[in-house]
Amino acid sequence: MRTFLFPLIKVLSTLLIAGGLGLEVWRVFAVSAGLLIPAGLTPIFWLERFAIAAHLVESGIAIALSPSRGQRPIPTALYTFFTGFVGLIELRDRPIITPSAKDS
């Protein structure tokens, strides 16, 4: 199930988050230019803001977990931001790297 579902979720999540970021940039431009934003888009704006906020929280979790898994924090956080919980699951499945006795 993972082999089919995870790649599909990662692609859809990346496309939707990129679209949400683009939509938010367009909204900021429209407001600053004094353009009228259709009222029907308000629920879509709230949904994309919630999704972006959730992905930011997941990125923060990835930053905290990545050093213990031997990963660099910033690239791991960016990957997790765009892929969502699938990125966190992939990070969780990596083995924990413990410092060796000679490092301490």
Record keyword descriptors for this entry:
104 residues; mainly alpha; 4 helices; 0% strand
Care to describe what's here?
- The longest helix has 32 residues, at 2-33.
- Helix 1 crosses helix 2, helix 2 packs parallel to helix 4 (85-93) and helix 3 crosses helix 4.
- This protein has four helices and no strands.
- The chain has one domain (7-96).
- The chain has 104 residues and is an all-alpha fold.
- Helices cover 73% and strands 0% of the residues.
Helix and strand topology:
Blueprint: H1 2-33, H2 42-65, H3 73-83, H4 85-93
Helix pairs in contact: 1-2, 2-3, 2-4, 3-4
Q: What is the helical fraction, as a range of percent?
A: over 70%
Mean pLDDT metric: 92
Q: Please provide the ordered H/E string of secondary-structure elements.
A: HHHH
Distance between the termini: 42 Å
- How many independent structural domains? 1
Count of distinct strands: 0
DSSP strand content: under 5%
Give the structural class.
mainly alpha
Describe the sheet with the most strands. none
Q: Which value, in Å, is the CA radius of gyration?
A: 18 Å
Sum up the overall morphology in one term. elongated
The helix tally amounts to 4
Q: Are there runs of 5+ residues with pLDDT below 50, and where? A: none
